[in-house]
Every structure is written in C-alpha cells, then in structure tokens.
Design brief:
By secondary structure, the protein is an alpha/beta fold. 31% of the residues lie in helices and 31% in strands. It is elongated.
Length: 248
C-alpha cells in the first residue's frame, strides 16, 4: 500500500523513491494534510521532522494527523536525536523514530521494518472492525457481523441454515444457493457448506478438504474446487486475507 511522505529534501526523496514501492511525496504539511483528507483513514505516513528549516514541522503535522485519524501509522525521521523526546511528550503515537544517519543501509532496513509493522497493524485494525451483513431469514432479514461468521451449513431435514460464528450459532431460513452473493468473502465449497474465506487456514486439494482457523474441517466438492483455487491465487481481492494461506 502507499506511503505518504513529507520531506522537502531532494536527496531524501530520490533515495526513498528507489527503496519504497508506492511513495507519494509532499513538500509542505498543508499539501500532505489535504491529500490525507481525500483518502480513507488508516494510512502509512513518513514525516521528516524539519521542513524548510522549521524544526518542529513534522511533529506538528503528526499532531494534526492524529487528531483526524487515530488509525494513521506515523513514522518520524530526523537528523536530531533530541526530537525523539519531544515526539514522545507530544503523544502522537509514532510507530518508530529513525535517525537519518545519511540514509545508510541501517536507516533503510529500520524504515522498511517500520513500514512492514505499520501495514500489519492496519490489517489487524481492519480485521477487528465489524462488517455488517444483512442476511435473509424467511420473509424478513437479520443483521450479522461478517467478521464473526466462520461458515454456514445446512440444517438437515429443514429449510434453515446454521450460521457458525466464532462463539455462537444462529439459524436463518434461507437458501444455500444464493448465500455467496451477499458478500465477496462468502464462498460455496460444497453443496452443504459456504465459508467465510477470511477464516480459511489450510486447503488440501488432494484430500478434498479445508481447515478453518477455528479448527473446523470442511469438505470441498470437485464442483466448487476450481473457483476456490482461483480465489486463493488472487487473495488481495478478498477482505481479511492478511497472511498467505498454506496450500498443499
């Protein structure tokens, strides 16, 4: 994902552009703040502590960002080690404070680790947020939190489905055939099973089965195996797939 960078140092911008995948540069705090105001909250932001000779520009910008976005992942870089204490006192919640040290290998190694941690934090925050999903229940509908749903199965001998949540089970009167259309994370893997692909831990094609992170073993029929394989080839299109899935 992109990294928003506040720096008016031409050499720093040139070197960072070589190392980072999606750097977006800004020379002034106002330009950065304006850009962040137009995108969703929860971005990775790298701030140079000094801008145009003003030593506290980065810190003040971090404070303004934090007021508007509690999920922002902020990293500060500086020539002045004393700024670390000021950032701590400012309580802006930095992921890391990195001394530039002429942009040597140690600096870039620490920066990349900080950005990796920031992205991991954002994935964790996203996974913790409720995802409301309204499912049919006979002639009416019921509201559920998709992040708590592990899988669905049929209730044998009835027209009901059982919703297996993390710590609870619910019953709804609905069709298994139409269920996957309600959210991109819902995948039918068997005539009697629909999974929330965000909870998938292990898929074993040779055994025609998969394991959810909760430990539940679920069969995979040949009819749906192809679509499941295709989904796992492109996990970035699915919400919640923060880590690679083991496929044997």
């Amino acid at each position: 994902m992109p990294c928003y960078i506040l720096s008016d140092n031409g050499n720093a911008r040139r070197l960072l552009k070589k190392v980072l995948n999606q750097p977006i540069f800004f020379e002034t705090p106002s330009a950065l703040l304006h850009a962040l105001g137009r995108v969703k909250k929860g971005q990775v932001v790298l701030l140079d502590s000094a801008i145009r000779g003003y030593e506290s520009a980065g810190l003040q910008t971090a404070q303004l960002i934090r007021q508007q976005d509690p999920d922002a992942q902020l990293i500060m870089m500086s020539d002045n080690a004393a700024m670390a204490a000021r950032c701590f006192e400012g309580q802006v919640g930095l992921i890391d404070f990195i001394i530039k040290q002429d942009f040597n290998a140690r600096f870039f190694d620490r920066l990349l680790r900080a950005i990796s941690k920031a992205n991991s934090n954002l994935r964790r925050i996203l996974n913790l947020r409720p995802v409301p999903i309204r499912l049919p229940d006979g002639r009416s509908t019921r509201l559920f939190d998709l992040t708590r749903i592990v899988y669905f199965t049929t209730d044998s001998g009835s027209h009901h489905l059982i919703i297996h949540e993390v710590d609870h089970q619910s019953r709804i009167r609905a069709s298994m055939r139409d269920l996957a259309a309600y959210h991109q994370n819902l995948y039918r893997v068997h005539s009697s099973y629909v999974i929330n692909i965000a909870y998938l831990h292990l898929y074993q094609p040779s055994k025609h089965s998969l394991t959810m992170v909760t430990g539940h073993q679920i069969p995979v029929s040949r009819h749906y195996a192809g679509a499941l394989r295709q989904a796992l080839r492109w996990p970035t299109n699915k919400q919640g797939l923060a880590e690679p899935i083991n496929i044997y």
